[in-house]
């Protein structure tokens, strides 16, 4: 069983539209475990580091401007194959091509404002969790039965 951690972020459009709860709920119901979360403003430097792989792309400036324009909700989710499971739940990069039932397919229209980010590989996840959370993300056992009844 490959237990992984992945970095997921509700982008400014998702926060402004009140979709944090919906998105957190979907990941919880899927069975992933929330091990880190914070609402935060993004500095120019953090945005440029996060999206470094896109530095030469024509949309880089717009992307950095967008992600720094208003707070994001950064999270770390843990579980079996968490990286690919989260990507599947998000849908394709372009919401217009994302299947209904996915987050982008249900809530998005345009590629520039596609609501959510998720790490694209375990290596990216390690890099992004270190970048956004350092050592802050938690590790804990889930014992649901103890808390109800
Ligand atoms: P993300 O990194 O945000 O999770 O999205 P992704 O892996 O599905 O897509 P990626 O190729 O990494 O692109 C990063 C973000 O850049 C914006 N984008 N705009 N105008 C364009 O053609 C274009 N292409 C990409 C999107 O917001 C995408 O999520
Ligand atoms: Mg990406």
Structural features, described:
It is a single chain. With 149 residues, the protein is an alpha+beta fold. It is built from 7 helices and 4 strands, in the order βααβααβααβα. Helices cover 38% and strands 19% of the residues. The model has no long low-confidence stretch (mean pLDDT 95). The structure holds ribavirin triphosphate and magnesium ion (MG). Ribavirin triphosphate is lined by residues 54, 59, 63, 93, 111-112, 114, 117-118, 120. Residues 54, 59, 63, 93, 111-112, 114, 117-118, 120 line the site of ribavirin triphosphate. It is an enzyme of class 2 (transferase). Keywords: ATP-binding, Cytoplasm, Kinase, Magnesium, Metal-binding, Nucleotide metabolism, Nucleotide-binding, Phosphoprotein, Transferase.
How many DSSP helices? 7
In spatial order, strands of the major sheet run 2-3-1-4
What order do the SSEs take from the amino end to the carboxyl end, as H and E? EHHEHHEHHEH
| Global shape | globular
Please mark out the parts with pLDDT under 50 across 5 or more consecutive residues, or reply none: none
Q: N-to-C terminal Cα separation, in Å?
A: 31 Å
Number of beta-strand segments: 4
Helix coverage percent of residues? 25-40%
Please give the largest β-sheet.
4 strands, antiparallel
The radius of gyration over CA amounts to 15 Å
List of distinct ligands in this structure: ribavirin triphosphate, magnesium ion
What structural class should be given to the helix and strand makeup?
alpha+beta
Q: Mean pLDDT, as a whole number?
A: 95
Q: What proportion strand?
A: 15-25%
